[in-house]
Amino acid sequence: MAALELTNISKHFGAIQAVSDVSLTLEAGQVVGLMGDNGAGKSTLVKMIAGNFRPSGGTMRLNGREIVLHRPLDARQHGIEIVHQDLALCDNLTAAANVYLGRELRVGFGPLGILDYRTMYRRAGALFKELKSETRPRDVVRQMSGGQRQAVAIARTMLSEAKIVLMDEPTAAISVRQVAEVLNHIRHLRDRGIAVVLISHRMPDVFSVADRVIVMRRGRKVADKPIATSSPEEVTGLITGAIETV
Q1: Which of 105, 115, 195, 200 is deepest in the core (most CB within 10 A)?
Q2: Which CATH number does the domain housing residue 79 bear?
Q3: CA distance 178 to 85
Q4: Taking the CB of residue 2, how many other CB atoms lie within 10 A of it?
Q5: Tens digits of per-residue pLDDT, 9-44?
Q6: pTM surpassing 0.90?
C-alpha cells in the first residue's frame, strides 16, 4: 500500500490553473525527485500535500485512507513534514531550540514549569549524531553553514517521527561539500523508511539520490518514471517541452 496517493489533484487561483489533474503515489522509504521549470506547479502541489493549500479537486489518501487537510497542523498530525527553502529557522536560537521550536519540553506543571534544556540538548545531539552532522545542540543558527542549517531542519522532522518529508530546493545556494552533506541526510531519511519528495532544479542531485523522477510542466504531470530508466537529457527535454511526454 502506498504511503501517499494523490488522485486527480487540481488547484486553481481564480482563472489561473496552477495544478491540473495530477495523480501520483509515494512509497515508504522512497525518494521522489519533483522537477519542472518555474511556474510548473511543483511548489503548489507540495503545499497541498503539506496542508498550506486546499485542493480545488481530487482526493488524497494516506496509507489507503482518504484525508482532507485544512492547515499545516493537520498534515503534521498525519506525519507529513515540510522543509521550506528558507528553512524557517530562528537565527538567534540554538540548534536544539530550533529543533524543539513549538514543541518545547518542560519539567513541572502549570506556570511553575520550566524548559527542560538538558533533555532537549541531549535528544537534539543524538539526532545530529544519527545524521552524521557536525552540528552541535548549543550552536547558534546564525553562525552555521548552509549544510548545518539543513541538518537542523531535517532533525526537526525526525523528532516528530514524520512518515513523509517534503523538501523544497534543499541544495540551493550552498557549497559542493554542503550539498553532499544534505544528500546524505536525505539518504538517511530514506533508510529510516521515510518517504521523501525532493523539489530541485539541480539535475545531479536528483539523479544521485532519487529513486523516481516526476516532471511537471504548466501544471500537469508529464513524466513519472524510475531514475534508472531516465536520463538528465530526457528530463531536460520534458521540462522545456522539447519532449512532450513519456
Answers
A1: 195
A2: 3.40.50.300
A3: 15
A4: 16
A5: 999 999 999 999 999 999 999 999 999 999 999 999
A6: no
Spatial contact of 81 and 166, defined as CB atoms under 8 Å apart: yes
Phi/psi of residue 31, each to 5°?
A: -105, 125
In sequence order, what are the beta bridge partners of 134? none
Please choose, from the candidates 160, 158, 184, the residue with its C-alpha nearest in 3D space to the C-alpha of residue 171: 184
- Determine the pLDDT at residue 111: 62
Full residue range of the structural domain in which residue 199 is found: 4-90+162-240
Grid coordinates representing 75 are 498534515
Question: Is residue 65 classed exposed, middle or buried when 0-12, 13-18 and 19+ CB atoms within 10 A define those classes?
Answer: exposed
Does the CA dihedral 43-244-14-39 come out positive or negative?
Answer: positive
Residue 128 belongs to what H/E stretch? Answer: helix 117-130
At residue 2, φ and ψ (nearest 5 deg) are -65, 140
Number of domains in the chain: 1
Residues 34 and 24 sit within 8 Å (Cβ to Cβ): no
